[in-house]
Structures are given as structure tokens and as C-alpha cells.
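dude i think i finally got it to work??
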Amino acid sequence: MASPLIIEEIDCKSKDWELAEILCSQRSGIRELNLTITDSGFETKLQWTVDVEVYIPAPTFIESLFSFLGSSSGIVVILFVILSLVGGVAFAGMKIRENKMIAEAYAEFRVNQSPPGVPLSTAPGKFPQPPTSAPF
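look at this
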């Protein structure tokens, strides 16, 4: 009766053991290991049948993210985000500049900027004056 050969967990990323490289590269399945020992002219052959189960852990979020960003679709997404940010900042800058120019023009021509029906004392940017009352 054959006795089972149990090999502990093998790090497939480690390249320091040739057998580990072979087992990991061939993935899961039945493998036969042959061992030949020669001593004083005598040859001893051993053979094991090994059921190999290779488990590759799922990549972490960071690994998946870097993998995606390194792909062609990831590069397209990065370019889209960069162009969107640059466009958004440019648009916001143009609107701020435009609003500033309009405010300067209103100030230059002394145009009332408050909506119709709102007294100047309560217009935005203007602080209402406290009511004047008779002394007690």
C-alpha cells in the first residue's frame, strides 16, 4: 500500500526551489514524481503519484487597481479624468473671470445689482441698516 506524500504549502512566487517552480507552473492535477538514488553501484528508484492543488489567492484591491491602470483601457480612463479636471478648472476659471468682469462693469456704471423689488439695503452683499427708533 502506498503511503501518501504530503508537501506543505509552496510559495509559487519564490524561485528558490526547482520542484516548486515545476509544480506551480503546471497548475492543479495528478503528477508523478520519480526519484533515483545511486549508491555503490546500486540504483534505487522511487515513484510517487501526487495530487497537486495549486491555489492562487485573489489579487488585492491595490494590485487590481494597478493592473487596470496599466492596461490600455486604464490609460484611456486616466486621460479622460485628467482632461475632465483640466477642462473643469479652465471652465471654472473662465466663469470666475467673467463674473468678476461683470461685477466691475456694474460697479463702474453704478448699476443696482439687487433683484427687482428688493431694497438696496437688503441686496446681497449689502448689510441691512438697523432700524432707527425713538429713545425710551
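The longest helix spans residues 72-108.
im so relieved honestly
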